Amino acid sequence: MTERIGIFNAGPAVLPEEVLLEAQKDLFNYKGCGQSVMEMSHRSPVFQGIIDDAMARLKDLMGLGDDYDILFLLGGASTQFLMIPMNLCPDDKTCNYVNTGTWATKALKEAKKLGKKMHIAASSEDKAFTYIPKEMDITDDAAYLHITTNNTIRGTEYHWIPDVNIPLIADVSSNFLSKPMDFKKFDMIYGGAQKNIGPAGMAFVVISKKIQEKLPGNVPTMLDYKTHISKGSMFNTPPCWTIYIVGLVAKWIQDNGGLVGIEKINKEKAGYIYNAMDRTDFYSGPVVFEDRSLMNIPFRLPTEELEKKFIAEAAQENFIGLKGHRSVGGCRASVYNSLPLKWAQKLGHFMDEFAKNNG
Amino acid sequence: MTERIGIFNAGPAVLPEEVLLEAQKDLFNYKGCGQSVMEMSHRSPVFQGIIDDAMARLKDLMGLGDDYDILFLLGGASTQFLMIPMNLCPDDKTCNYVNTGTWATKALKEAKKLGKKMHIAASSEDKAFTYIPKEMDITDDAAYLHITTNNTIRGTEYHWIPDVNIPLIADVSSNFLSKPMDFKKFDMIYGGAQKNIGPAGMAFVVISKKIQEKLPGNVPTMLDYKTHISKGSMFNTPPCWTIYIVGLVAKWIQDNGGLVGIEKINKEKAGYIYNAMDRTDFYSGPVVFEDRSLMNIPFRLPTEELEKKFIAEAAQENFIGLKGHRSVGGCRASVYNSLPLKWAQKLGHFMDEFAKNNG
Fold first, then answer.
1. Which of A299, A307, B59, B244 lies 20 to 30 Å from B25, alpha-carbon distance?
2. Longest CA span, chain B
């Protein structure tokens, strides 16, 4: 088999090798049906089976039943920044956001751009988004509270779910299905598929029947959740291939112990890197200890020159994707579900060696 | 090699076998770079090469230069129905539409839903959309004229381009790159990828620099063409795999004689089916002769029972996708670019035999 490299990309991100090999085997002729999944009519029974299977597996992993609908939508999570306030914040209410950095900031700015009353219930901007705010100040007329469960760029993660008596909405793009979570506490979660559950090109939305009662009637067709709920995500042609891969990834998670099993491995993987970081003063992590992300691990070296050297030498050892986001600099290792354990282990070892040789 | 079937789907549609085989070969490890295209960072040089290549090939096929931008957007053509009036019809102007059926109807309804002044410049609704209107009545304050160059459901196609002195916008979803066209006459064309140029999950937009000057500043971020133009379709994560396949399909068209070569083959393919239809009174085509589509060929049989029998027997011979759209009934053969010639020939023969045995 051809040699794979260590893919630490923040997204699009690594996929399970088993999933890639199965997709490759079936690409030309899906299970002997004479056509590729990329060619199938979305109205055909064979594709209906694929989408039903993917949705059922995701619901099973989340432990959710018929009181939630799953939508596979085009537009990426960025389009959700717009659809959420448009659909779920009436003009006489205020949408509340916790600002934990870049993506949360984009989400709340879009609500404001739409002309909605928007309130920042909590923010960690005072300390460069290096922690998750524990206190919130929610308005009495709140339409919903919006949080971002993991910040890909800053490397912070919610390890708890806010207890609120208003609808709770979360962007879970970068830690979806990485650990057990009480999904029933949310009225809506959403994210881009391209980090933990599939290739780029699709947003998933999990929306409770309860919050669906609040949907208005005057929203443009493609931006209206009702359009997609009523047609089972097939109002227009869905991204069939992406949905197929998401189904394979969900099956792979189920086969690897579900969310309990995945969390165990994720902790071990992140451990290799955090331990290498904590063993020496050579590396420093900006995030407060208790809010460290299991998915995205940013770290700094003593100088920018050493960071460049680190990334260059890592590339020679076939580690890619280790450059920090351009807005913050430094280094970052994204260790999503699908990253093989051995690559996290190898990176931890590489970090130890690099510190020894350059410290 | 595993046996392929005859895919006459209206969309998602057949893809070239050569493209599928190449994608299959490279799926696990793209050109030895150690990762799948589905895993690549969209910010990486290797993916930048893939998207640049796809855009350059499309521009080459259309004969367009730097005075046009190509965008690869999420949301499908249906989202364009909304973005076009939102971006290109100011409140003091009227958007003009030619109504040639289903998709055109959806496009103009969305403009109306947005509260824009909308005018139907021509319509073939009087005769069940079985022809392309030749006369138009365009308002003096027209923001643009919108046409649909091919109607997938009704099987009508523009074989000419309206000469107007206002911006001309066209939904070209179902006949894009199927024949030479004077693309410079359009200020914007767009479509879903899933018919002639790739798998489902992406809209392409070709937009002139000239019309870009008219773009306003108050549109939600993801619905604003300027957002995507300024970032080369990478404001958010693009559908990398779909873009990759589109590039392969564009190369396949170039390798097969470009648009001149493709049109020649398309005429021959459609000919097999139209000839089988015209040879006998057993079949009837609803569309007026001069507006017949080279891509989608609807036809009726003497009774609905015979239509069911036709579709069932065709399925036994491995022809799929021959059922007419549920809104119109009957039969339909979609013979897009990628349908191998032999399958069109086989279907023509099958139609002859079926007419003989059941006439």
1. B59
2. 64
Mean pLDDT of A271-294: 97
Domain B18-254, architecture per CATH: 3-Layer(aba) Sandwich (3.40)
Beta carbons of B239 and A14 less than 8 Å apart: no
- A103 an active-site residue? yes
Name the pTM for this structure: 0.97
The mean pLDDT of chain A is: 97
Say how far residue B327 (Cα) sits from the centre of its chain.
19
CA distance, residue A147 to nearest chain B CA (Å): 20
Query: Which residues from chain B sit within 8 angstroms of residue A346, using beta carbons?
Result: none
Comparing CB atoms, the residue among B36, B78, B113 nearest residue A236 is: B78
User: Which of A102, A222, A325, A334 is best to mutate for the B interface (most B CBs within 10 A)?
Assistant: A222
- pLDDT at residue B2 in the model: 54
A219: Cβ contacts below 8 Å, ≥ 6 apart: A86, A87, A226
Is the pLDDT at B1 greater than 70? The verdict is no
Catalytic: which of A69, A171, A187, A291? A171
In the prediction, which pLDDT does A236 show? 94
Q: Express as a percent the part of chain A with pLDDT over 70.
A: 99
Predicted confidence (pLDDT) at residue A218 exceeds the cutoff of 90: no
Mean local confidence (pLDDT), B188-195: 97
Matching residue, tokens 């470009």: B258
A348: amino acid identity, one letter: G
CA nearest neighbour of B167 among B214, B122, B120, B133: B214
Question: Which member of A93, A116, A117, A195 is catalytic?
Answer: A195
Give chain A positions within 8 Å (CB) of B40: 9, 12
**Which residues sit opposite A71 in a β-bridge?**
A205
pLDDT at residue A217 in the model: 85
CATH pick for A257-358 out of 2.60.120.10, 3.30.365.10, 3.40.50.10140, 3.90.1150.10: 3.90.1150.10
Please give the C-alpha separations between residue B163 and each of A35, A87, B351, in angstroms, as whole numbers: 41, 41, 39
pLDDT at B342: 97
Average pLDDT over residues A158-180: 98
* Helical spans, DSSP H, in chain B: 17-26, 45-62, 76-88, 102-113, 209-212, 225-230, 240-255, 258-278, 304-316, 341-358
CA atoms of A109 and A132, how far apart (whole Å): 19
* Two tokens, residue A332: 């970052």
In a mutational test of the A interface, the residue from B228, B237, B240, B322 whose CB has the highest number of chain A CBs within 10 Å is B237
d(CA A275, CA A270): 8
Query: Is the bond into B12 cis (omega within 30 degrees of 0)?
Result: yes
B281 has catalytic annotation: no
The CA distance from A130 to A338, in Å, is: 26
Tokens 């996929």, residue?
A15
Per domain, the residue ranges of chain B are 18-254, 257-358
pLDDT at A2 over 80: no
Nearest CA in chain A to B243: A201
The confidence band for B154, taking pLDDT boundaries of 50, 70 and 90, is very high
- pLDDT (0 to 100) of residue A1: 44
Q: What is the mean pLDDT of chain B?
A: 97
Q: Model confidence over A250-262: pLDDT tens digits? A: 999 999 999 999 9
Interface confidence (ipTM) of the complex = 0.97
Q: Which of B5, B23, B240 comes nearest A200 by C-beta?
A: B240
Residue contact B41–A223, C-beta within 8 A: no
Contact B77 A39 (CB under 8 A): no
Chain B interface disruption, residue of A30, A236, A240, A311, most B CBs within 10 A: A236
